[in-house]
Amino acid sequence: MFKRFTITFWATVFVGVVCLSLVGVDVWRSLTMRDELLQEMERLGANVTRAMSQQADDTIKAADIALADIVERIETEGQGAPALRRVERQMVAQVINLPQLIGLYVYDEDGRWIVNSRGVQNQAYNNADREYFIYHRTHSGRGPHVGIPVVSRSTGKWIIPVSRRLDKPDGSFGGVVLATLDVDYFRRFYQSFDVGARGAVALISNGGVLMLRQPFDNGRVGGSMVDSELFRHYSQLSGAARTTSAFLHSFHDGQMRLMCFRPLEHYPLFVTAALSRDEMLERWRRDTFTRSIGVLVLAALLGFFGKRLVDQIKLRGEVEAELRTARDALESANRTLERQAMSDGLTGLANRRQFDVTLGNEFSRAIRHEDTLAFIMIDVDYFKQYNDRYGHSAGDEVLRAVSKLIRALTPKRPGDLTARYGGEEIGILLPNTDLAGAQAVAERIRQAVEQLQLPHQGSGFGVVTLSAGVATITPQRGVHLQGMLVEAADQALYAAKSAGRNRVSLATEAVPAG
Ligand SMILES: Nc1nc2c(ncn2[C@@H]2O[C@H](COP(=O)(O)OP(=O)(O)OP(=O)(O)O)[C@@H](O)[C@H]2O)c(=O)[nH]1
Predict the structure, then answer these.
(1) Ligand 1, residues 397, 402, 424: which to mutate, most atoms within 8 A of Cβ?
(2) Are 1-339 and 352-506 the same fold in CATH?
(3) Average of pLDDT values for 69-78?
(4) How many angstroms separate the CA atoms of 405 and 445, rounded?
(5) Which end of the chain, N or C, is less surrounded by CB atoms within 10 Å?
(6) Ligand 1 pocket, 392 CB below 6 A?
(7) Closest atom of ligand 1 relative to the 467 alpha carbon
(8) Does ligand 1 come within 6 angstroms of the Cβ of 369?
(9) Torsion of CA 23, 24, 29, 35, to 10 degrees
(10) Which 3-state string (H, E, C) describes 421-485?
(11) Domain locations along the chain
(12) Apex 332 CA angle, 329 and 336, nearest 5
């Protein structure tokens, strides 16, 4: 099946396959690298959110422990001046110990400062309108409350309020204990993460309030994210499924980003890390582009030189084919020359040379097989007169016509040979043929020539005729020579001529043995 295709075809297929493989492998490698990069990106996001949630949990927890302690003291020791001084000292110590704390404050049920870590008693500040204050006044729960970030009235800095409710002995609302966490404390930590120029991290409340974002966004911090794709996605999840990642549009600039989520363990907050896929893939794209150019150039060079190679192979094939054709033509010319060297130009019959060779071969064969070899010698009657009367070329024509007829009537067995013996004499060699068989052949030829009715005014018959002498021999080695057979046929021919021509004469007796 494969033989149907040329070497040029296979060479072209090979070059094509190599080029395609080169490009294919490169494409496959690029896609694999892209997948690995995206997986790496997810790992980075997961690590960042793990660290962020841990830090936020620890930071709030430390402040909350301080709050719980203050609540417990005030509720047990009361709000007398000595008790409040002890609480104040404790609060100052806590603020010094905890770098995330800006201040600790205790408010009465009307929102007025009772005591704080700053040692200032300014009744002008009333925080009864703050979200956390309203929350505790309206909620009897004793747990911590992480409020909405605000700009502190006392320090002018962005703070995250963490608070607990103070109860009076009768269980009614007695005020609020507040810890203000420094937003910058979180930001400094968030800045240590490399999430790329277009990446961002954020701390968000489970209620959908943006607590903090890095890069910092003054206009959005404290605002609602309830309508964002990010929040909608997160709020549909629950439990462990909330630690996840997804490609979502950023609420900040609408760009597609990989968003990684993780909830805080102890507080109703979660953190997100948003990584820009475009940014992450930028270097990959650059590398892929550069490498693809290289691969394409390589493939083009391979294709170019491959084509040249194929052309060379093709050329070689063509040259070989031409050489084959030339060799065949030469062989054919040689065969023609050989044939011409062995045949007679006028009649197309075998020439004397071939006759001698064949006679030699057949004579030997007849000796080996003890066969009888017959020979007929034919001569056109009064041919000299024909030439004289009709011209030499007309004589040639007669010779051609007679030869054609003789060839047609001579048996075609292997070894049978019709040859122009010389002049206007034609000899027929018939191996393995007895005298009667050869005579029949000669007689058939004689009659046929006569019936051709070729006019010959120089002959008493009026038409071209011929005479034939037939002889046979069963040669024996060392006894007979091949010339004996020809001589016997020649003598028979002479006899035919002497007897009046236009007849067949047989050699009076077979060539004698010994
Ligand atoms: N046109 C032509 N004539 C040839 C050719 N070869 C031999 N001859 C002529 O054939 C003639 C043979 O004549 P001869 O052998 O004397 O005898 P003939 O005239 O045939 O008479 P018989 O043989 O006795 O009947 C000669 O005149 C040759 O010149 C040839 O190739 N072409």
Answers:
(1) 424
(2) no
(3) 92
(4) 7
(5) N
(6) yes
(7) 25
(8) no
(9) 120
(10) EECCEEEEEEECCCHHHHHHHHHHHHHHHHHHCCECCCCCCCECCEEEEEEEECCCCCCCCHHHH
(11) 1-339, 352-506
(12) 135
From residue 357, give the alpha-carbon distance in Å to each of 38, 51, 226, 410: 93, 111, 117, 19
Tell me: pLDDT of 167 over 80: yes
Q: Tokens 């493939």 — which residue?
A: 299
Pocket test for ligand 1, best of 352, 387, 465 (most atoms within 8 A of CB): 387
In what helix (H) or strand (E) does residue 420 lie, and over which residues does it extend? strand 417-422
Atom of ligand 1 nearest to the CA of 386: 19
pLDDT in tens, 330-340: 999 988 888 77
| Partners of residue 165 on adjacent β-strands | 176
The pick from 384, 397, 454 for probing ligand 1's pocket by mutation, whose C-beta has the most ligand atoms within 8 angstroms, reads 384
Average pLDDT estimate for 232-238? 91
Residue minimizing CA distance to atom 26 of ligand 1: 384
Does ipTM surpass 0.90 in this model? yes
Q: Is 384 in the pocket of ligand 1 (CB under 6 A)?
A: yes
- C-beta of residue 396 within 8 angstroms of C-beta of residue 347: no
Distance 425 CA to ligand 1 centre (A): 8
Task: Report pLDDT digits (tens) over 285-311.
Answer: 898 899 889 988 988 888 888 888 888
Residue nearest to atom 6 of ligand 1 (CA): 423
Give me 41's structure tokens: 């990106």
- Per-residue pLDDT of 463-494, as tens digits, reads 999 999 999 999 988 888 888 999 999 999 99
* 384 Cα to the center of ligand 1, angstroms: 4
CB 248 within 8 A of CB 176: no
Top-tier CATH class for 352-506: alpha beta
What confidence score (pLDDT) does residue 487 get?
94
Q: Is the CB of 400 under 6 A from ligand 1?
A: no
Asked whether the whole model's pTM tops 0.80, one would answer no
Fold category of 1-339 in CATH: Beta-Lactamase (3.30.450)
